Amino acid sequence: MSRFFGLRKKSRAGRGAILTDDPATKLGLLRAADLFQGLNEGQMAHVEKITVMSRCERGRLVYSPGETSEVLFLLKEGRVHMYRITPEGKRLITAVVEPGTLFGNMAFTGTTMAENFAEAQEDSILCVMSRHDLEMLIREYPSVALRLLDTLSTRMRELEARLEEGLLRDMRSRVAAALIRLQEHHGSEEIPTTHQELADSLGTYRETVSHTLGQLQEDGCVRLGRGRIEIRDASLLKALIDADVTVPERR
What we know:
By secondary structure, this protein is of the alpha+beta class. It is 41% helix and 22% strand. It is built from 8 helices and 12 strands. It has helices at residues 23-31, 41-50, 131-140, 142-168, 171-186, 195-202, 206-218, 234-243; strands spanning 17-19, 52-56, 61-63, 71-77, 80-85, 91-97, 102-105, 117-120, 124-130, 190-191, 222-225, 228-231. The strands form 3 sheets. A 5-stranded antiparallel sheet has the order 1-2-9-4-7. A hairpin with a 5-residue loop joins strand 5 (80-85) and strand 6 (91-97). Helix 3 (131-140) packs across helix 4 (142-168). The protein starts with 16 loop residues before the first strand and ends in an 8-residue tail after the last helix. 31% of the residues are buried.
C-alpha cells in the first residue's frame, strides 16, 4: 500500500488520511461505485471488509514519485490532480481525477503513476485497494473485471482524443475541446476551473490560455468569471473542434 494511504487495516495512516470506519458509510460509498454494480448484499459486505476508505484533506499528497507498492484508488468524493514536474520546474497536469475515477499504480490494470504526483484539490474520500485485494475480487466476482475493462477502455479513448488534440489542432481548438470535455463531464454550462488549471492540463502557459479564452469570449463562445468559465455557445466551440475553422463574427 502507498505510504500515504496504508491505513491501520493494512499498515498505518498517512499524512492527512482519516480512516472511514463506519461500515454503513463505507457500504454506501462502495455501492455508488460503478465497479461494484450488480453485487448482492452478501458480496458487498465482503467488499466492505477487504477495502479501505480514507479521507484526504485538500492540499495533501495521495501519491508521489518513488512509491514502489502497487495500489489502486477509486475517488468517491472530491477532486485530485495528477501532475509531474518538468525539467524547467513547471507543473504539468496529466489528469484531473473526478469522482468515480480509478487511478493508481498497478501494472496489470494498465494504470501507472510513473513520475506523477497525485494531490487532493478538495477534501476527498478514496477507496484504496492493494493488488492482492483487487485480484481476489476479480477471481470471486468476474463482473468486477468486466466493469474494470469498461473503465480502462473509456480512459484509453479519452487519452487518444487528448493526444490527437495536442498533435493536430491549434490552441483555439484545443481550448475549445477541453471546455466541451469539461462541460460534458460536469453536465453544466458553468465549469469550475481556473485559467491555470486549464493551461496545466493542456501543457501550455496560463498567459496563452488566458489570451485564447479572451478571444473566445469576444466571439461569444464563453463568459469568463472568477474560478469558472461559462459556456455560452457550445455549437461555436464544436465548430472549432470539428474543422479548426474561424469562429464567425457575432452580430
